[in-house]
Amino acid sequence: MSIRESGAPIYTSIGNRSNTVPNPALAVQSNDGKQDYRPAYTLVDSNAERTGRQ
Fold it and tell me: The whole model's pTM is what?
């Protein structure tokens, strides 16, 4: 069961705009061929949570 399914509160950590980029672990290609990103709660590897930080 995921945290989201358990109903537990979900918290996020937000970095500064100057040192944060979209997380490449969440990147997907949309139907029109553009880069898009899945929601953070769909991240499979929790170790990749901060890969968008520089």
Answer: 0.56
